[in-house]
Amino acid sequence: MIVNYNYLNQEFSNPNEIIGEWKKLIKSTDFTLGKYVNKFEYKFSKFIGSKYCVSTNNGTDALILCLKALNIQPGDEIITVVNTFYATVGAIVSVGAVPVFCDCDDRYQIDIDDVKRKITKKTKAIIPVHWGGASPDMYKIMKIAKLNKIKVIEDACMGIGASLKGKSPGTFGDISAFSMHPLKSLNAMGDAGAVVTNNKKLYNWLIRYRNHGMINRDTISMWGVNNRMQPLQSIVGLWGLKKIKKVINIRNKNASYYDKKLKKLSKFIKVPRRIKGFKETFALYMVLCRDRNKLKKYLEKNKIEVKIHYPKALNNQPAFKKFNSKRNKHKFKNSDYQAKTLLTLPVHQFISRKQQDYLIQCMYKFYKKNEF
Ligand SMILES: Cc1ncc(COP(=O)(O)O)c(C=O)c1O
Fold it and tell me: Which domains are assigned to the chain?
C-alpha cells in the first residue's frame, strides 16, 4: 500500500469549476485586483470573523505588511518562537527589527512563560504562531500584551479553520497574517495570503500601501508596494472556502483516530496534549517518536511518506548566528528535543482509514508491538 503525504493531485483532480471561473476572468480581462479579489476578501473576513481583510501575494508578504502597518522600526524587538517556519523571522528581519526568540511548550506552541521573561522596554510586538494548525493560548497572550502595552501580530498562516473556544486564529491580535500556500488547509494553486484586522485605520493604510500607495490611478498618497493577490488565485481561494469546514472536520477525525491508536504506543510515541475547546486544522499532525530517524526510514521503506517540521529549530540555523546576541543566548530545550524526535504523519482529507491503519500497523511493527 502507498500512503502519500502530498494530496494536491487528488484535491485538484476535477478543476472544472475553477477553470470555468478562470474563463470568465479571462473574458473580463480584470487581471489586477477587481471583482474576484474583492469577493475573496469579503468572504475570507466573514469566514475568519474579522472586520477587514487585505489579500496579498503570500503569507510572508502578509506578515511584512502587518509589521509595516504597526510602524515597526529598525531596532525594535519582536518576540516570537524558535520552532516556526523561516518566514515568521524573515519578515521581522526584513523590516530591520530584531527577533527575540522563545522556546516552545509540549504542544509545540510558543512558551508563554518564556514570552513574559523576554519582554523588555524595546519590545514592540509579539508574534505568536499557530504552529501546525494548533494554537497557543491566545487569551493568555493577549492579557500579557495588554498589561505590557505591546502589539500582537498573529502568524495564523497555518491556522485557517481552527478555533479557540469558537474564535478563529487571527481575531485575537491587533493584526494577523494567513497563508494559502498549496499545502495549507485553504490553498491556492501557487502563492496567496491575507492580512486581517478589526482596526479600520490599519485597514485603510494597508489597502493603499499594498497597491503602490494609490488613492486612484493618477495620485499616490504615500510610497507603497505591489503586494496584490492574483485574481486567478482569488478564484481558487473562493472555491476552497466553500469546502474548508468539511476539510477541517475530516482532518480532525483522522487526527483523533491516530491519537487513539498511537496512545497505545505511549512508551515510544508521545501524542501532544489537546486542549478542550481548541479546534486544530491539523495542517501538521506531529508526534514525538523514539528512534525517529530509523522509524522514518522504516516507514518510507514501506511506501509511507512522512515529514519532519523541522529537523533544525531556527536557533540551529546558520542564519541564526547573526542574532546570537545576548538577547538570544538562551537554551531552547523543548525545540531542540522536538527537532530530534518529531515526525509529521499524513492526516489530509484524502487519506483512507485503511491507509491510516496500515501506517499505524507499520509503527507497531517497528516498535515490535503486536497488539493493534
Ligand atoms: C508559520 C508560517 N508562517 C509563515 C508562512 C509563510 O507563508 P507563505 O509560504 O505563503 O509565504 C508559512 C507557510 O509557508 C508558515 O507555515
Answer: 8-239 (3.40.640.10), 244-366 (3.90.1150.10)
